[in-house]
Protein: PASTA domain-containing protein
Organism: Enterococcus rotai
Amino acid sequence: MSDFLSNFSGENYEKTRQEKNKQKEQSDKPERKKIARPEKKASKQEPLADEAVQPEVSFGPQNSPENVENSTGEQHKNLTNEPEDLIYTKKRIKKKKYEPKKATTTSESVATTPVNQSKNPEEVIETDPTYKKKKIRKFIFLGLGGLAAALLLYFGYYQLTHVKVPDFEGKELSEVRVWTTENGVKLQVEQKYDFAKEANVVIHQNVKNKKIKKGKELVVDASLGADPEEIISLPDFKEMKLDDAKSWIKEQKAENLAIIEEYSDKVAAGDYLKFEITNKDVKAENYKRKDKAKVYFSKGKEVFEKNISVPDFAGKAKEEATEWAKKNEITLKVDEADSETVESGKVISQSVGKDTKVAKKESMSVTVSTGKALVVPDFSQFTAEEAESKANGLQVQVKQLFNDQVPYGQFISQSVEIGKKYTEKEEKPVIQVVYSFGKPYLKDLRDSTLEGDLQKIFYDEYQSKGANITYQVYYVDSTVTKGTVVKMSQYNEFIPINSVVQIGISKGNLKPEENKPSDKPE
């Protein structure tokens, strides 16, 4: 089959056509002689003509729209004048028995032979009338497919970059903080006083049960509880019982109004004793929720005889005082204080004097020495090199951190307040003292740093020293070795402690002649 098809390509096709024309000319000579004979002789050939093989017309490579249109008027002319342009292909067919025999001359059969013939009877050139419609339909399908893909990509992007905000109203503010941290949403808290809500409870939020883009800001109003500046109309506690006063305080959220119960010889248990406001300048008429006050109620009568003599505990061990108080049912409060003279663990002073008579259940206090105290110095008066030697026996850890406002070497902070005292028995913390490194300076890392070294460089040089300087990488076409830093958004300059540096990493995919001009200034 491949040999047969090769005859119709290029030079083979021309050779095949010429050979066919020669055979045609040789076969036409006896045919022409037969045409010149009388009709009677031609009629004798009818049986032969009836049984002769008739050619089947097929369209070949010589066809064109112009040949088809002109075939009716010029087919005989083309046949006689340009026989070399035709290639005849004959196909043997069976003649139907019922067809009438017709006596035709050779010239007539030749004249009725269509011009459009092909050597291959199976080769037919056809025009599809639905081609344009199919083409339009194809473009429509491609357009719809592209639109669907774009919508799908947008939907996926939307799902990845947005998160649905729950309803936090009435819930604790801590839940909102946890949710925003986990979902990459910024949180802005606006605190307001709200009598109906407890402190740190969400009152309102600007987005609820809707999606918000990650990185956007969620604004919530959080309750500070009841307004401490609100003026409260005080009731007449004289007419109230103890339980009624407690209920009123709870309803009004007057947490700074304390109920004190005391024994009383004259007032029955649960009855009002007295009311007093701590700040003498505040009157009952303008009492605010923030003002401290006390309302006293009776616990009834309790009588103890003051027949217990208090000894002198000065200079004695604390254990001796506590044992005496336990034995005599005295409430003893022990305070501690440093002393330059009294040994640690010994009593410095007592609230009830020597030989004073007290009764059971009464209270007294003693102050016990903790020994000499270690005082925290003011490290702002020293340099970073002097800090450890000036610590007065306390442990100090000196650090230097970047700072935009404090110049290099200057004091920034210390973890323990100045003048705080620590006794010998107390656990002493390590005092963190911080001095400034000044502003961070970003060096040029191009052409000398690999991508794998960036993490260590940014941590050691900046992040470990208090500068929140991070980086983002992107990849560029370059002849430089793959993975090498070739571009930086900032370099060889001071930058803020909170910065993000854009770093271009070489793909190493270009040849030297394809290299683009360097970004480095000449």
